[in-house]
Amino acid sequence: MNFNRRILGKLAIGLLGASMLGQGAAMAQDRPAPFDKPEEVEIALVRYLSTGDFFQAYLSGVEAQAKALGVNLRVLDSRQDAALQADMVDQAIALGVDGIIIQHGLTESMKAAAQRAVDAGIKVVAFDVNVENEAIPQIEQSDRDLARLALEQAIKDNGESWKAAYVYVAGIAPLDRRDETWREFKEKYPGIEEVAQFGTLDNPIANSVANQARSVLTANPDIQVVFAPYDEFAKGVKIAVDEAGMSDAIKIYSADISTADISAMREPGSAWAATAATNPAVVGEVSVRALALLLAGEDPGRSVIVPPTLITQAELNEQDIKNMEELGQKLPQFAHADVVVPDWMPLPPRD
Amino acid sequence: MDATAGKDKEKSVLDGGARKTGMNMRDLAIRYGFLTLLVGLIVFFSFFTRGFASPQAAVFILQSVSITGILALGVTATLVVGGFDLSIGSIATSAMMAAAYVMVVMEQNALVAVIACLAIGAIVGLINGLIICYMRVPDLLATLGMMFLLIGLQRIPTEGRSIAAGMTLPDGSTAPGQFSASFLALGRHRFDFFLPNLVPASVVVLIVLAILIWFFLEYTRFGRMMYAVGSNARAAEFAGAPVKAYKIWAYVISGIFASIGGILLAARLGRGDIASGNNLLLDAVAAALIGFAVLGAAKPNAFGTAIGALFVGVLLQGLTMMNVPYYTQDFVKGAVLMIALMFTFALSARNAR
């Protein structure tokens, strides 16, 4: 969905620019400073993670919203180097940007750097990293809600007692938050019995998880539900379930979504029953809007939560959704989030 | 890889004939220790886990190591000539991306995809070999550079996205093609073997390639010359062997094997996944190094590599079935490798005396 939208965005901006050369200035003047002169505003996106569809889509959302506002965007990518990411914040400070979005990272390395930026008078928002700073709003995709939606669907489909396998790797912030919800559910529904736990981040992740899942399924052929709260995990489990010929006996519940996931969920007889997801592009847009609000002197609040959507196999089949594009068109709640949308805020074109 | 190791290897080869007469317990331990350990592990897991001792389990253990096993066989060829190939993991993932790109974006059939992958493997291997032999870049550095190059290159056509049927392309349109059924069969088809639908195609490919490269290295003149180049390149050169050609061929073999691994990976996943392949590289190298210890060979050998890969597979799948968490598995993998290396080098040291 991201790209089409980006192109559309470009077109729209181009048209807007061409047709409104005269009145454009007047329109921008209705906005609070500094967005009355957006071309003088520069924001920086300082990334920790960038490889993969999720982060690519997030970036496209950031770009779309920055374009809609007309501000300059600078992308600094540390490629999973925590120390470099902190240096990049300092670099952004030195460049004299007006606002910074910190995207992922480690609390330990980013806390001091974020404080330096705030001290330098720069507005900062953080996505999916807790920098322990009152002045910095947290953008969250609410991992707890993601896990809750998927698990509620699992309860709805399978009743309150089943044998489960759980895929988890500790130490990854979003997975840890999803894990909290899983623990709560196990307490709330004592009928859920976790007979096996596994997981790995060895890449290609789906392949490594498939190998593990294959062993787990052989050792525990009575598993009914696999909770795999990350789509790469779910993909791996699905491969293993297919290879073991157990698609009828097992249901997979996960989090996150991509075009490849949609086709895997829609394969005939697929065990992948449902997933809960936030649209990463929307999270990107919301990150920029929250920062814009701060720059305009308004308060987006201490934490900005982008609500997730539940996507079931049945829904995908009924509406014949084949990729992320169509998912956005046919499930509008997935394509847009009315989070941080004051009247003056220009939004990326919605198709 | 270095000169002293080469000399040690040479000695162990020379000593081989003399040693056979006086085989004591220690020789036996070094020779058959690893195989005994493998059998012991299989017995242990059969008793302590449910479902381990079944033909299905045997097959999926082989399947779990088929891709790293194939890569390991390729890297064995470079180890034989005294080289090393760090780029195999990224060749495999690049081939995976290429296969997906050829089918999903360019709408070609399975055959074209396979040929494109093999060509990439061969070309990358050739470039590696040329850089190492003619530009005199050390093998580790040349292939390290190639690794980074490929990790980046595989992302350029799709601007960093994974490739799946129905994906949105950088220009905004939707990808028209999809994975052809016959290509997917490479990863998913199962041959009947006593039981119906038992042996996956990837396992068959692994076994065929293992036998091929084993025969090639042990019994053909070309293979024996590669060993000669590896143990003493200068001596081989004085003897009139085209050393550079043998080395280049080793990298081409390594590249082609890695691309076959990539084809199987793409067929199993059914999409082109953005991945560096570093885990594939490390597991493959571990299997090849463990292989040094098998039958007390103390040198790279295809049979040992296959057993090494199998050993890691049995261990990891068995532990997973016992519900052992993932982080202990890396520990165990490391421990096995250390033990194998001690087997190998203790043997070499003894022979050097």
Word description of this protein:
The complex is a heterodimer of chains A (351) and B (353). In chain A, helix 6 (143-158) runs parallel beside helix 7 and helix 8 (205-219) packs across helix 9 (231-243). Mean pLDDT of chain A is 86; it is low at 14-26. The longest helix of chain A has 18 residues, at 2-19. Chain A is built from 14 helices and twelve strands. Chain A has a six-stranded parallel sheet with strand order 2-1-3-4-5-11, sandwiched between helices. Chain A has a six-stranded mixed sheet with strand order 7-6-8-9-10-12, sandwiched between helices. Chain A is 49% helix and 17% strand. The model of chain B is unreliable at 1-21 (pLDDT under 50). The longest helix of chain B is centred in the C-terminal third of the chain and has 27 residues, at 243-269. Chains A and B meet through helix 1, strand 7, helix 8, helix 9 and helix 10 of A and helix 3, helix 11, helix 12 and helix 13 of B.
Q: At the fourth CATH level, what is the homologous superfamily of the largest domain in chain A?
A: Response regulator
- The CATH topology of the largest domain in chain A comes to Rossmann fold
Q: Uncertain runs of chain B with pLDDT below 50, 5 residues or more?
A: 1-21
Strand share of the residues of chain A? 15-25%
- The quaternary state of the protein chains shown equals heterodimer
What's the structural domain tally of chain A?
2
Report the biggest beta sheet of chain B as strand number plus sense, adding barrel if it closes: 2 strands, antiparallel
Question: What's the order of the H and E elements of chain A?
Answer: HHEHEHEHEEHEHEHEHEHEHEEHHH
Q: What integer is the average pLDDT of chain B? A: 85
Q: Can you tell me the overall shape of chain A? A: elongated
State Rg of chain A. Answer: 21 Å
CATH C-level class of the largest domain in chain A:
Alpha Beta
Helical content class of chain B: over 70%
N→C terminal distance of chain B: 21 Å
What is the CATH class designation of chain B?
Mainly Alpha
Number of helices of chain B: 14
